[in-house]
Amino acid sequence: MIAPSVIGFLAAILGTICWVPQVVKTLRSREVKDLSLGTNVLVLATVALWLIYGLLLGDWPLILANVFSVTCVGTIVAAKLIWGRE
Predict the structure, then answer these.
(1) Which residue from 81, 7, 83 is spatially nearest to 44, judged by alpha carbons?
(2) Domain range enclosing 49
(3) For the segment 7-63, what is each residue's pLDDT rounded down to a tens digit?
(4) Which InterPro entries match (predicted)?
(5) Does residue 11 lie in a domain region?
(6) Confidence (pLDDT) at 86
(7) Would residue 73 count as lying in a domain?
(8) Given its phi and psi angles, is residue 36 left (phi above 0), alpha (psi -120 to 50 degrees) or beta?
(9) Is residue 60 in a domain?
(10) Domains of the chain: total
(11) How many Cβ atoms are within 10 Å of 76's Cβ, its own excluded?
């Protein structure tokens, strides 16, 4: 039987690596016109709340995954705010 923490870490890894290609593409191209600020702000709020929830529970898979997600989505939101006005 697989330990629940192993499942949690696998889910965390798979659920967060999906942001890497978008962050890399955004930073390389500085092209943000097709990114929705509203959607990304909502996703940022969601992962921030999951991070807080993980911290309250002391659940490391949730904490690590959402620190990574907040960083990635926060980068996308910042890029949209900075380069979206050019």
Answers:
(1) 81
(2) 35-86
(3) 888 888 888 899 999 999 999 999 999 999 999 999 999 999 999 999 999 988 889
(4) PQ-loop_rpt
(5) no
(6) 58
(7) yes
(8) beta
(9) yes
(10) 1
(11) 23
